[in-house]
Amino acid sequence: MKQKDTILEDEIVKDDVQEEILENEETTEETEDNVVDIEEKLEEKNLSEEMDALNDQYKRLQAEYANYRRRTQQEKETIGIFANEKILNELIPVIDSMERALDACTDKEDTMFKGVELVYKQLKDMMIKFGVEEIEAEDTEFDPNLHLAVMQESIDGVEPNKVVMVLQKGYKLGNKVLRASMVKVSC
């Protein structure tokens, strides 16, 4: 009977061992499944991070290109405006001469006066077309960036540092001064 009990115990132990083996196999399979799941998630995360990095790089490149286009457009506009600067500077004394000729004419109904006035008007229109503006100076605050003070005079009723007389007109092209206004300033 002892032998039977031992055999029975052996069988029970075998059954327990087999159950343990089955449980271990299931646990191993679960662990392998977990490892595979973790590897898949890790790979997904790496791909997601790589995609985000590439997307960020793409956006930066796109912004750089937009800035480049804007800068080159501004440079083209600036070059276009200031390309004629030298010619415009040469025409300013011609305009001064035309103004003196108009001031010197006594007969405003004379055909010579009307011809000179017409040419003067064409010159002024051409300068305006290219963006040249006359610098307003009379009765304004003296600005050394726009005005060249050649005389000073103390005048009653006029506050100091005011332009009281324009001796020669000044011109600017956009924000750039082509010729400063020659002025008389109160002190």
Describe this structure in words.
With 187 residues, the protein is α+β, with helices and mostly antiparallel strands. Helix content is 64%, strand content 17%. The protein has three helices and six strands, in the order αααββββββ. Strand 4 and strand 5 form a beta hairpin. It is rod-shaped, with a radius of gyration of 46 Å.
List the helices and strands and how they pair.
Layout: H1 2-82, H2 85-104, H3 111-129, E1 132-135, E2 147-153, E3 163-168, E4 170-173, E5 176-179, E6 181-186
Parallel strand pairs: 2-6
Antiparallel strand pairs: 1-4, 3-6, 4-5
Summary keywords:
Nucleotide Exchange Factor Grpe, Chain A, domain 2; 3 domains; 3 helices; three-stranded antiparallel beta sheet; 187 residues; alpha+beta; three-stranded mixed beta sheet
Summary of the model, kept short:
With 187 residues, this protein is an alpha+beta fold.
Q: Whole-number average pLDDT? A: 84
Helix and strand content put the structural class at alpha+beta
Q: Could you give the order of the helices and strands?
A: HHHEEEEEE
Reading side by side through the largest sheet, how are the strands ordered? 1-4-5
Q: Beta-sheet strand percentage?
A: 15-25%
